[in-house]
Amino acid sequence: MSPALQLENLSKSFGRTEIIRGLNLDIAAGERHAIIGPNGAGKSTLFNLITGRFAPSGGTVRLHGQSLRGLSPYQINRLGLSRSFQITNIFPRMSVFENVRCALLWSLGYKYSFWNMVSRSRALNEGADAILDQINLLARRDLPAGTLSYAEQRALEIGITIAGGADVIMLDEPTAGMSNTETDYIVGLIRKVTEGKTLMIVEHDMGVVFGLADRISVLVYGQIIASGPPAEVRANRRVQEAYLGAALEDM
Amino acid sequence: MTDRAEHPAARRRYGGLTLGAVAPWVIGALLLAVMPYVFASNSAITIMNQMAITIVFALSYNMLLGQGGMLSFGHAVYMGVGGFGAMHVMNWMEQGVIALPLPVLPLIAGLFGLGFAAAIGIFSTRRAGTVFAMISLGIGELVASSSVIVVAFFGGEEGVSGDRTYGLPVFGHDFGSQTEIYYLIAGWLLISALLMYLFSRTPVGRMANAVRDNPERAEFLGYSARWVRYYSFCASGFFAGIAGGLFAVNYEILTAENLDLNTSGTILLITFLGGTGFFFGPIIGAIVFTLLQTVLSLHTDLWQLYVGALFVLTVMFFPGGLAGVIMMHVPPWRYGKVRALIRPYLAAVLPAAVGLLGLASFLEVLFHLRNAARGEEGMTLLWVHFSSHDPLVWGVIIVVTVAAFWLARRNAPALRAAWDFANTPPGADEARP
Ligand SMILES: Nc1ncnc2c1ncn2[C@@H]1O[C@H](COP(=O)(O)OP(=O)(O)OP(=O)(O)O)[C@@H](O)[C@H]1O
Ligand SMILES: [Mg+2]
C-alpha cells in the first residue's frame, strides 16, 4: 500500500529565498505525524504546498500514490485531504451550525446543486449537529461564528476541518495561543475526531507533540533533519542541538 | 459533557414546512391581491407596477451583493438585455411570427438575462472585490455605449417599442389595462421572490454566503469560490432579466436608459438603503425608493437631493439599511421591552424629524428664491402658502430647526440608556441597582 502522503524532493522559493529545500517525507495511512521546528522553519509553507494553496517550485506531493501537481485546493480537498489554519479561518458572519453544514455539503454529494433545500436533508443537518456535539459547540449553534471566544473558534476550525470526513487531516498549530486547560480540551478533541485517520499536525507545545504523535519530523530551514518515533527523535543529537534542547527545557 | 438526550438539539426536527416559514408568503400574496382594491386610482396602479418591477430587480441585485459579496456597478445590463429581448418577442407576436400568451414573456426575458450573465460571468466572477466591481463597470459602459451601435437589438436612439396586446388571450384577458398588467407583474413578483429565497437555501446558495465571508476557506471545503460565484451570478442575471421582461410588458418600450450607469447605480442605492443583510431588505428599499421617486418628486424638484442624503445617512449610521433598523428591534421585542423605547423615541426622534423637515424647508425656500420666475414670490410648503422673500418665514424656519435639533440632542442620552436597557435580557437586569 502506498503511503497516505508522500513528499518527494519538495521545494519552494519566494523570490530568491528558498523556504522548503528538497524535502522528502512519507506518512503512512493511519499515522499521527507531528511536524516540529523553530519559527519560520517553513512548517506552514509545507502545509500550503501539500494542500494546493501554493504551487511547489519543484518536487511532487502524492496523496495515496496520486500526484497532486497542478490541482487546486478544492480539488485536493475532494480527494480526501482537509486542513485547518494557524490563524483561525472560519465564516464569521454565518452561524456556527452553518459553518459546519457548509463543510459537509461537498462530501455528501450536493456539489453546486440548486434544486435541493439544505433544510430538508437529514444527513446534512444531523451530521452537522453531530459534529457540533463532538466539538462541544451545540450550545453555541445559532450564534454568528465571529462572536465565539478564541478557544471556541479554534474548536470550530477543527470541526470544519473534520466535517467532510476526509481521511487525511492536517492541523496547523491547533493549540496556539491557548491556556493549559483549553489545550488539554483541544488535544482530547483531536484524539477523538481523528480516530482511524491519518493526522499531520504542526505543534509547538512539546507536551502535545509527545503525547499525541506516533512519529515526529523535525523541520529546520526547510529540511527535515530527523524523522522517527518520539523517543528516537528526542534522543537525536542533531535535533537537540538545532532545536529540541531549548524547546524541551521550556517544558 | 452534557447528556446528548437532554440537549434541545437532540430533539430538533429537520425539513417540514412550518407556519412561520409559510406565513410571510401567504400574507404577501394576499396583500398583492387586494392592493388594487385599496389603491384603485390609475396613478396608484402605475406606481405599484413600478414598485413591483423594482423589487424583483433589487432582489436579484442582492443575490450578488448581499448573498454573494459581489459589488456590481453594471447590473442594469442584465435587466436591459432581458427587457430588449422581451420587446423583440413582443413585436414578433404582433407580426404573427410566433403566438404566445403575454405572461410567459418575462420568463423569456429571464432566459435572455441568464444567457448574457452566463457569458459575462465566465470571466467576471474569477475574482470578487475590486476586480469584479471594475469588470462590471466596464461591461456596463460597454453595453450601454453599444446600444447605439448594435441598432438591430437595442434600437438605437429611440429604443425598441411595441404593443403588448397581441399575445394569445389568457382567460379572455388581453392585458390592455393597467390592472391586468398589475396582476401579471404581481404574479411574477411572487414567483421570482419565492424562487430567489429558495435559491438562498440550496447548497450553492449557502456556499454563496460562505464564499462571501471567506472565499479561501470555501476552497478548502471542496468548493471553487469562482464557480460558486458564477452560479449565483447566472441566477441573478436570470431574475434581473425577468425584471426587464416585466418592464417591457409594463412600459412597452425600452431605451438605452435601461442599460446605463445611472440605472445600475440606482439599484445599488436601493438595495443598500433597504439592507443587504436580510432577504426582505431590498423589498423595503424598492418600496421606499419608488415612493420617494414618484410621490416626493411631484412635490419638490429637490427630491434627488433628499434621496442622496437619506442614502448617505443610512450608509453612515445604519449600514444594515432599513431592514437592519427593523431587525435591531427583535431582541427588545423578544425581551418584552419595546414599550420602554416608545417615550424616548418620541422625545428624540420626533424633534429630529422636525429638525430635518426644517432643514428641508430651508433648502426649499432657498431653491425657490433662487429659481422661481421674477415676481413669483408665493410658494406652498407643507400646505402653508407664503412668500419666499419674507424674512419672517426665514426666521421661523431657522428658529424651529435649531430648536428641534437642540431638543433631539438633549434627549439623545435618555434614548441611548433606554436602548441599552431594552437590549439586556430580562434576567440580567435584576442585578441593576
Ligand atoms: N507567501 C509568502 N511570501 C513570501 N515569504 C513567505 C510567504 N509565506 C511564508 N514566507 C516566509 O517563509 C518562511 C517560513 O514561513 P512559515 O510560515 O512556513 O513558517 P512556520 O514554520 O510555519 O513558522 P511559525 O512557527 O512561526 O508558524 C518565513 O520566513 C516567511 O516569512
Ligand atoms: Mg506556521
Q: How would you characterize this protein structure?
A:
- The complex is a heterodimer of chains A (251) and B (433).
- Chain A is 37% helix and 24% strand.
- Chain A has 251 residues and is α/β, with parallel strands linked by helices.
- Chain A has one domain: 3-Layer(aba) Sandwich (Rossmann fold), CATH 3.40.50.
- Chain A has a six-stranded mixed β-sheet with strand order 6-7-8-3-9-10, with helices on both faces. Chain A has a four-stranded antiparallel β-sheet with strand order 2-1-4-5, with helices on one face.
- Chain A starts with a strand and ends with a helix.
- The model of chain A has no long low-confidence stretch (mean pLDDT 92).
- The N terminus of chain B is likely disordered.
- Chain B folds into two domains: 308 residues, Orthogonal Bundle (ABC transporter involved in vitamin B12 uptake, BtuC); 94 residues, no CATH class.
- In chain B, 39% of the residues are buried.
- The radius of gyration of chain B is 25 Å and the shape is globular.
- Chain B has 433 residues and is mostly helical.
- Chain B has 17 helices and four strands.
- In chain B, a hairpin with a 2-residue loop joins strand 3 and strand 4.
- The chains are: A alpha/beta (251), B mainly alpha (433).
- Bound molecules: adenosine-5'-triphosphate and magnesium ion.
- The site of magnesium ion (MG) has 3 residues of chain A, from helix 1.
End-to-end gap of chain B: 36 Å
Helix percentage of chain A:
25-40%
Weakly predicted, low-confidence segments of chain B: 1-11
Give the strand content of chain B.
Answer: under 5%
Give the overall shape of chain B: globular
Write down how many β-strands of chain A occur, each being a DSSP E stretch of 2 or more residues. 10
Largest sheet of chain A: 6 strands, mixed
Low-pLDDT regions of chain A: none
The total tally of domains of chain B equals: 2
